[in-house]
Each structure stands twice: as C-alpha cells, then as structure tokens.
Structure prediction request, 464 residues.
Amino acid sequence: MTDGANTWQAVQAEVLRRIRSGQWAPGGAIPHEADLAQELGCARTTVNRALREVAEMGLIERRRRAGSRVAMRPVRRATLDIPVLRDEIEARGAAYAFTLQKREMALPPVSVQARLALGADRALLHVVGLHLADGHPYALEDRWIDPEAVPQVQDADFTTLSPNEWLVLTIPFEGGDIAFSAHAATQGEAAALRCPEGAALFVVERVTWRGEARLTCVRLTFAPGHRLVTVI
Amino acid sequence: MTDGANTWQAVQAEVLRRIRSGQWAPGGAIPHEADLAQELGCARTTVNRALREVAEMGLIERRRRAGSRVAMRPVRRATLDIPVLRDEIEARGAAYAFTLQKREMALPPVSVQARLALGADRALLHVVGLHLADGHPYALEDRWIDPEAVPQVQDADFTTLSPNEWLVLTIPFEGGDIAFSAHAATQGEAAALRCPEGAALFVVERVTWRGEARLTCVRLTFAPGHRLVTVI
DNA sequence: AAGTGGTCTAGACCACTCC
DNA sequence: GAGTGGTCTAGACCACTTA
Prediction:
C-alpha cells in the first residue's frame, strides 16, 4: 500500500497524511530518508525533496545524524505578497496617483535613527507623499533615505514616481524587515487621509538594508478599513 | 570567471547578482538552464535547484518552452510565522494564562455566516476568551466553530486550554486565509483589554477549512501597541 | 513539432552531530 | 567514529507551451 505515484508531491502528501492522522505524532521521530524511499518505492532524492518542503513549512525538524522529527509545536507559516502600491491599487481596478508633499534633507527623529542604526548628526532625505486610488487617499508614505547608501536618490524626482516605486526599480530585492501594527491617526495623518483624528489605521513599517548598510525606512499608513489578506 | 563553487547556493548568488546589477534586466529573458549549467560548470539539476528558489521569491518567472524571464514587477514576499498565542507570550518571557468568557451555541452574525459560507439557520459554537501575559490582557479571542465539521469540539473544555491551542493540537495543518487590519476598540473590547474605547487595535481574522468544509473562524483583537514583525 | 523547464534515478561524496 | 541529512552528477523521460 501507500506507494502512490513516485513523485515528490505524492511522497509529500503521504507524509502530511501521516502527520495529520497522528500516525507520526508531534515530537516523534519519523523514518530515515533511505527507509522511506524503500518503503514508498522511490529514490532517496525524491524523499529528500518532499521532506525539505515539509520542513520549510515548519511541520518537521531535520538534523543530520539525529534524523527528522515531527515538530512539537507546529507553527503556521503564511507568505505575504507585498506589492508596489501602484500595482495593489490598479489590481483593484482603481486609477492610481501619487502626490508628493515633502522632499527635504533633515535630521531624522530618534526612532528613525534607531531603526537605521545611524548617528544623531546624519541628515537624511525625508520624503512624504500620498498614494491615491480613484482620487481617494489610500496610504500615506513617510520615508527616510540614506543618501550615502543610495546616492542615485539625489537625482530622483518623486513628483510623479513615488519613492515606493522608484526604490523597487532602483535597488531591487534587498533584505529588510517589516512590522504591522495599528495606530491612532494623528492630526496630520487625519488631514492627509481625510479621516477623523484618532481613527484606527493600519500601519506597515519597513527597513531595507543591503549587507550591513541600512538604506531606507518607511512608514505606510493606510486609510481606514484597509485589510491585508493572504492564504495559508 | 563566475564559476564559484558549483553549489546551488553559489549559482543562486550569481543569479541574484546579475539581476541586481541589471545585467539581467526586468522583463528580459535569462539563459536556459542548460546554457547556464555549462557556463557555470555544474549540472543542470543544480541550476534548476537555484532558479526554482529564485522563482519562488518572485524574482523570475519560469515557463516551459518559453524559458525564464526576470519579473517585470518583482513582488516582495514575506513569510510570517503565526505561533500559538501561548508560545508567542512565553517566548517573551511572560507567564501565559487564558480566561474563558463565553462558550455557547448561537446563531452567528451575518458577517460570520458569510465567512463560513453557511446558511442563516445553523447554530455554531461561540467561544470568547482572553489571553493574558503576566496577568495583563494580551489578545481577545472571539471564535465560531462548526460542530458538524469539528465534532470533537463538543467534548472540549476551554476553561484552561484555549480554543486557539486546542484547535492546533486537534486539527493540525489545515488550509485557511488570514487578514490583518486595524480596528477601533468597541466598548466590550475596551473593557476586556483594559484600554480606552476607540483605541486603535491590531486585528487578525482567520478562517480555517479542510477541503471544502469551513471549520472555524476567529477574530483576535490585540491589546494596544501590538506589532507583528517579520524579516524578508 | 520542437524546445524548455520539471522531475526521477542511482550512485557518490561531504558536512554535520551525536554517541 | 558512525550515521544522518545535504548536495552534486549524468542521464533520462515527461509535461507543457509556444512557434
């Protein structure tokens, strides 16, 4: 039994079935790759391919010499797609626009200094602008860019191309971290997003770095009602 | 040149370097696997392994017969770990506790009916409880469970083990979707979380299904200041 | 119809860990 | 030191898609 087609998907499905059914209990060891390969009638490479993804899902833990075990505390792992705001808005069938509100060199506040790990005396480029969907405020972008780390930014004109979009095109695919939170609208945010002061707003904060260098940090404050959705 | 060690990581690093440097421009085609393998001095399998992950990152698009191209609009893809609340709280070094506030069969509101795709006349199990960290309110859990889809729930006693935790142990690793948003505290939420009415709260809503059957939906409302963080 | 990526195999060696 | 997962190889066939 159990020898479904010898594809790695079939092996993976069988592995998931055994975990779900409790046949392989949380915290328990599972057979070695070689044994599984023989049992399921496929090459060890195929078993390896199947188990690798299960491990990436967080369902099993693998260690050399020690073998693989079902995770004691399985973690749900969701993948979030974070598109450029223009794409996100146009995907909803709305017309996109961006209005620049500020573009100046300035000393960042302490919170930004900390997030970028910079000294207190470094002036950064501060850009603030509003993303609009069909003319309605969609998100407020408040960004700090280190011109030493991103020298091209001196020539960037953000009046039509938002920094959000410009950066994706200019410095693609660097590392970073993201934080999601809720935040009561300040007076300025309320004015920009045309919502009551104190309204509950969804906030995305991101720091982008290349190697050790922090390039930019941004705070996106979305208009009320925004939802970030994904499928597990 | 370029022939770093013939590991898939080296191949992938080289591929990423070429994308970043613009040598392979967005929207442009990249060499075929076989050509790359020859150029970099490794087996095609190794190139395939490297490119597969780059495709999963969303940086390139691969199609049979058509070859691979650098994505025109690279999407940032973040993976979020969504632990059980007990683990999340204990990982912060705080003492975890759960208090059950409600457990009753009831007709769900329209919004829940819609999310679970159920008729208006189906009574569901409604469970409300508070997760505490060192005695302070951490998150309010408001959950609806379909007893027909999860019959074991009839025997579950949620006074000490939260439904959050019970469900992970009982029906592990099913599919679902998640939504994140911000929400102004209602009177009841404010009382439970000990915050001002109208405070900006971070909300996670989740629907869990198995195959076609919707099992449960939950709304987790976090105390003010909560942040969900991840690394890209 | 043909070319590309997707996958499987059998064998091999290596890196890491635990005993 | 020995056993496990991690990876590479060379070759092969298949599935899909586009020309």
Summary: Chain B touches chain A through 50 residues (CB under 8 Å). Helices of chain B lie at 8-21, 33-40, 44-57, 85-91, 110-116, 163-170, 187-193. DSSP finds seven helices and eleven strands in chain B. The radius of gyration of chain B is 24 Å.
